[in-house]
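Quick one:
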Amino acid sequence: MRTVTYPCRAVSWTVDQSWSSSASGNDGLPALIARAGPGPAAGVPEQAWLETFLDARSDTLRHPHDAATHTVWADSAGRAAALRDLMEADEHQLDPPLHVDVSGDEHELR
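Output:
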């Protein structure tokens, strides 16, 4: 059994919360995962895959194929950046308090 780390859970949660069921085709979650490439199950280090996944997610949120979702999704791009910031700060266990900056708004998560 593979252990899923907290960053991977956080990414899963934030994607689940923000990706509408109407996202399909090139904007859908399967396409996003495919753009991130082979994952940890294929031997890719989890952090490296998460960084690639967050890059793909940020790009999709900022430049969706479906123009109707652009405004709403662009507002969510800061959350992907906040997750990357937590990873870069070695906050892999997500132990509170966490300090995050989402699109210029600072938050403390306890």
